[in-house]
Each structure stands twice: as structure tokens, then as C-alpha cells.
Amino acid sequence: MAKYVLKRVLMALFTIFLVATLTFFLMKAVPGNPFVSEKTPPQSVLDALNEKYGLDQPLSVQYFKYMSNLLRGDLGVSVKMQKNYPVISIIKEMFPVSAKIGAFALLWAVLVGVPLGCLAAYNRGTATDSTLRVVCTVGISMPSFVVASLLLIVFCGGVVGWFPSIFDGSPRSYVLPCFSLGFYPMCYIARQSRAAMLDAINQEYIKTARAKGLKTGKIIFKHALRNALIPVLTYLGPQVAFTLCGGFVVEKVFTIGGLGRYFVQSVSNRDYPVIMGTTIFLASFIIIMNLLVDILYKVVDPRITLGKES
Amino acid sequence: MADKMKKAKFGSLQLDVEDVISWSELTNADFAPASSQEKENFIQDRESVSFWKDAGRRFRKNTVAMVALVILILVALFAFLGPVIVPYGYDQFIAGSENLHPWHYTLEDQEKLAAAQMTPEEAWAKAQEEAAAQGKTLGPVDKAKIMAAAKASGGADTDELRKELGIRARLFGYSNAELQRKAAGESVFPHVFGTDKFGRDIMVRVMIGTRVSMVVGLSAALLVLVIGALYGSISGYLGGKVDAVMQRIVEIIYSIPEVLVILLIATVIGDALTSYVNSHSGFIADMANVLGANLISMFIAFGLLYWVTMSRIIRGQILQLKQQEYVTAARALGASGPRIIKKHLLPNCIGQIVVTTCLQIPSAIFLESFLSFLGVGVSTPMTSLGSMASEALGGMTTYPYRLLFPALILSIMILSFNLVGDGLRDALDPKLKK
After folding, report:
1. CB-CB neighbors (< 8 A) of B411 in chain A
2. What angle do CA B326, B331, B336 make, to 5 degrees?
3. Rounded CA separation B294/B268 (Å)
4. Rounded CA separation B322/B234 (Å)
5. How does it sit in the membrane (chain B) (predicted)?
6. pLDDT of residue B70
7. What is the four-CA torsion angle of B336, B338, B339, B342, rounded to 10 degrees?
8. Residue A307's pLDDT is what?
9. Which helix (H) or strand (E) holds A184?
10. Which of A186, B72, B101, B293 is a plausible cystine mate for A113, CB 3.0–4.6 Å?
């Protein structure tokens, strides 16, 4: 177990390192000085920046300087959007907003998706099953910006004005962003848990449980669901990433001041230090989430031999 | 025949084989030509069913997948033939046709409406009459209020007035100038989906956007197929240490959050390419210019990151297949590794390859629309469904259909590709069906 965890942690660290390196060299590939925009900053600022990141030095030196800055949590300063404001502070301010919406979205996706999947599996072949299947197939075919903007048209004044169209932090304004962000994962989870549940229901131990005279509810929730949840769990790790990135779109549609929207704005404004810092931060976050889920997966399912590929 | 062998001794347990041997002796009758009846026995009753025919039959039985396929063909016709038929260009500003709705009112109806509508002066006169009847007089402040109200309430009032007058909106958008030309007997192509604020025909733009999405989806899937198949088959065939190293690389790439990196690559390579195109000339620069820097960087990102799933699937297949006898036989005959992979292994996992490629298309379309929506997809003046949806966000309450049309086509297209992919999977590999 310890060996497996250690191996995964080392690999995650290596991946983070790789992303940071990739980011660094990609930024170097950008023509011109990354700190110079249409409005060139004053020479003193430019000199300070150049010195801080050692832009006058050879590439290898620059790389090590950048990496050591990174290790100390120094992601540089914004050059265009909020001049000379540290990127790490921007992340500290904006990330909680995105994370909150993402967490709510994933929560409802799991809490609704898994029961729906079980329902469909248990009523296999009935109208309930086919309805749910149609809904879920349509759901995974709709990009999140389509879902978000359709909701915005319908519920924010187009047909009914139940929700504010601009995010203001009130509980009501959370509803639509969380719904649209969680819709795709919900459909995906429902599909996955349906398949997993079907697998589980056909196992021998379920027949045994039924032969013993257990109630349906107990069979489903106590015996089948536990095993059906394992594949769903593996899916959740990458889903964290998807939800965060889907957040880019949803935050744009609902004008939410989160990290996703800021990242997209920095991309279109070509604010390279912000792009760089945010990419490394989000990437590390996602990789660590994946790592946690991976380890959790092995803990939950003792049948899986640790440290070996199945 | 003449000198028969001795019979076995009495009491011997030796078999009497004489009769048995004579069974296989050929007589003259055996060399007689076959009768027509005998010949008929050799004719196949029905043709042997090949793998593809079998799969095709299963696919055709799948109603959902067939409907999805038909829809896909229709969408493709819409995207590739449509712009030929519609006389407007996707980047053509049609002066005088800005902000048209996908419906119009005939010129007569418009006149009727104008005649029925009260001007602010009439509203003032009416209000004065009413006030006089009640014995009141209205001051200049009231006058300003009433006239402003009459001016401002144009929208709501007009809708009600239209209902009263029985004026109905007609299908398709025409500007007034176009309506007059039409009345003069010219044939004017309608703006079926209306126009945007620059007077560009939305239908043509949706067609071109669909075309971009389809081309991007197909070519990205092919790119993924080539890289994934190569990598997966080499890794699976060689096995051992090579496989272990290659799989570590796959695992690392798998855990990189690809959307982030693609955004990054799209931005950076886009910038680098743009400056390259601007400063260089020649074939490569021209190509880059035609395709657009962002589109190229998207393909590069796809080529770098998205082949992982494909390579895993193919590796798994090859690991199983390479244990088969025919591979051993081929190797014993001296076939080289590349030849075995090309001639024996890959053709045998063609089902998996086709299905995975087909399911890769919607995910590529997803990604392209996502990037375009965020503004790092195709570059202007080229358009795409994602960037159209992004542009439409601004006037969403007034012109919801500007978002609805591209969003609808995009969703239908992705849904159909998904359904066709599922159908193909069921048809090519019935074991996988759940």
C-alpha cells in the first residue's frame, strides 16, 4: 500500500513538474518579450521584471530561476489585467468562488445521477429506463455553454424571471450555474452507474441475498450499490477537472467573477504570467484530485491488488 | 485385385480388411461426368456472410442509429451544399439588412400598422379630450409625460395593435428594401435565420460553422487514429520493457489536464504562428494563413494529447491478438514486426478502431466549440458554431435565436455522432452490448 501510494505521489509530482516545464517553454516560444504589450511598461518596471525572471540570462538559468520562484509560491505578477498584482493573490481571491460552484455542481450530479442510474438499471427495459437513457444521451451531447445559455434564456427573463442573470453571490444566483455545470456529469454518472448497477445486479451474491428473502431496497442499497459505486468513483477524479474547465464557460455565461472567467480573460488579453500561473495552479489541483481519487479507489475496493496494473 | 491376400487364420483376432480396402477403389463410374443434379449440389445456396456484411445488417436493424445516420447526412448536406445554394457569403456585410429577425411583416401590413398607430401628438389630443370630459385641464408637464410614454411604449403597443389588426409575422427575414425589390418582381433569397448586427446572414454562417465543426471533428479523429494506432500497436507488440516505458508515458499524458494545456498551446502557438505568417512567405506560411493559426494549434494539441485513449484500446487488443497462432505462424515464416502489425494485427482489431474513431469525432467537435466559445478557436473572419454562440451571448434576450440555431445544430450533430458510434459498436462487437 505504502509503496503504491509513494509511486503515485512521485508520478503526480513528476506530472506537475512536466506541466510547469511545458508551460515555461511554451511561454518562451511566444514571440517577443512576454511583459511587453501594446502599451510598453516603463523601462524601470521592465528592467525589474527582466531581472526578477532573469530574462537577460541564458535559458537554462531562466528555467531554474522560474522553477525556484515557483517552489516558493511566487507565480509572478499580472502584466495587463491588474498591473503588478501578484498572480498568487488573484488565485487566492478567485479560486474559492469557482471551487464553491464546482463543488455544488458535482454534489448534485452525484446525488441525482447515482439514484437515477440505479432506478434505470432496476427497471431495465421499461419506459423509465428508456426515458432516462434518452435524457442522459442528449445530456452528454450538449456542450455546457449550450445548457447554460439555454437556461439563461428561459429562466432569466426570456420566459420567466425566476433567477438573476448576473451572479451576485446570493443563494438564488447559485442555482443556474450549478445546475448547468452539473448537468453533463450528472448524465454521465447516471449512465455509468446504470451500467455498473446492471453488472452488480446479475452477480451471484445478489441472487443469494434475494433467495434469503431480503427486501429490494436493502439489496439495492446495501449490496449492489456499494459495488456499483466503484466505477463511478474512478470517474469522479477526471470529472473534477472537467467541472473546473466547464467552469470557464459557465462563469463566462453567468458573468461570475471566478478563476475560470479570469483565466479566459487572461487568455484573450494575452496576460502571460496570469495564464502561466493559473495553468500551473489548476493543473496541480486537478492532478492532486486525481491522485486522491486513485488512492481512495484502491482503499475502497480491496479486491484490487495494489501496486499492479490490473 | 487378382491375387487376393490370404484370409486371416482361423481364430486370429486380426481384422479382415479386404472389404474395407475395396471401398476406396475407384471404378470407371467414378470418372463419369457429373450429372446436372449433382452439379447443383455444389452451387451455394446463399453467399457467405462476411464480417462487414454481418455488421452492416446489424447496423441497419438499429433504428436509432440509422435515424442518427440520416440526420448526420442531412446536416452534412446542409453544411457542404447549403453555402453553394444561398447567394450570401458568410463574411458578407449586407447593408440595410442588419438585425433582421427570422420573420418579417409584409409592406402592406407595415403600412396598416403605421396608420393604426397613434403618434405622440394624437395620444396627447386623446388625453386632452378625456381630461376635458372629466372637467380637468392638463399642464405642460403632463403633456411631456404622455408624449414620452406614447413614444416609448412602441414595442408593447405594437404587439397588441398587430393582434388587433390581425397582422401575422411571415416566415423568413427580409429587409424593407428587399421586400420592395421582391414586390418589383425580383427574386430575393430570404434570410431564413435572420441576420446579425453587421447584416451577415445567420444561416450561411451556421452552415459554414457546421462545416468547420465537421471537418475539425473528422480530421482530428483521423489524426488521433493514426498516432494512437501506431503507438498502441508498437507498445503492445513489442511488450516487455519498451511497453512498460511507453505505458508510463501514456499514464503521465493521461493525467495532464488536457483542456488547460490545449488552451495554453492554442494561445501560444496561435501567437507564434500568426507572427510567423506575418513575417514569412512561401508554402507553409500560406497554408498556415488559410487554415488559421488557432485551428492549426488545435490540431497540434490534439495530436499531442488526445491519442492516449486510442492507443490504450489498441494496445489491449494487440496484447490479446499477438498470442494467436496465426501470428506465431507469420513470425515463423519470417515476417517482420511492422508487417505482422500491418497485415495481421491491425486488421483484426478494425472493429474497435472504427468505433473508437467514430466516438472521437464528437469529443473533437465538443472541444472545438468549447475553444471557439472561449475565443481561442477559429479566427475571424472564419466562423464556427462555438464562436457564433459566444457572439450571441450579448443580445440574448432580444435575439435568442442567434444562439439557438448554432446551439441546436451543434447538439444535434454531437448527439447523432454519439448515436452512430454506439450503433457501430453494437454492430461491430455484439459482445460489448449491454
Report:
1. 138, 141-143, 146
2. 125
3. 9
4. 12
5. Multi-pass membrane protein
6. 93
7. 160
8. 42
9. helix A171-201
10. A186
Chain B residues touching A102 at Cβ < 8 A = none
Neighbour tally for A222: CB within 10 Å: 12
pLDDT in tens, A237-247: 777 766 766 67
Give CA–CA dist A191/A186, Å, rounded.
9
> What are the angstrom distances between the C-alpha of B357 and each of A5, B11, B393, B418?
34, 75, 33, 11
Under an 8 A CB cutoff, do A143 and B375 touch? no
Here the cell at position A205 is 451474491
**Least CB-CB distance to B263: which of A156, A158, A267?**
A267
Higher pLDDT, A102 or A47: A102
B370 touches chain A (CB under 8 A): yes
What per-residue confidence (pLDDT) applies to B69?
Answer: 92
Cα distance from A138 to chain B (closest Cα, Å)? Answer: 6
* pLDDT-flagged residues of chain B (< 50): 1-2, 155-156, 433-434
Q: How confident is the model at residue A41 (pLDDT cuts 50, 70, 90)?
A: low
Which residues are B170's β-sheet partners? B104
The cell for B415 is 448527439
Residues of B in contact with A152 (CB under 8 A): 396
Check residue A197 and give its pLDDT: 85
Among A248, A256, A233, A79, CA closest to A165: A256
Amino acid at A183: F
Q: Is the pLDDT of residue A310 over 80?
A: no
Rounded CA-CA distance A272/A258 in Å is 18
Q: Which of A14, A143, A253 sits opposite B366 (nearest CB)?
A: A143
Set out the domains of chain B in order of their start, with CATH numbers: 60-92+200-428 (1.10.3720.10), 106-168 (no CATH)
Interchain CB contact of B299 with A (< 8 Å): no
H/E stretch holding A62: helix A59-71
> Which pLDDT score is estimated for B142?
74
B306 contacts B360 by C-beta, under 8 angstroms: yes
* pLDDT greater than 80 at residue A51: no
* Percent of chain A clearing pLDDT 90 (strictly above): 0
ipTM: 0.79
Q: Report how far residue B390's alpha carbon sits from residue B384's, in angstroms, rounded to the nearest whole number.
A: 10
Distances (CA, A) of B124 to B113, B148, B159: 19, 10, 21
Tell me, what's the pLDDT at B5?
Answer: 55
Q: Is the pTM of this model over 0.80?
A: no
CA distance A259 to A251: 9
Write the CA distances from A123 to B328, B352, B384, integer angstroms. Answer: 47, 30, 41
* Phi, psi at A77, each rounded to 5°: -120, 155
The three cell numbers locating residue B204 = 450561411
Which residues, in sequence order, are bridge partners of residue B104?
B170
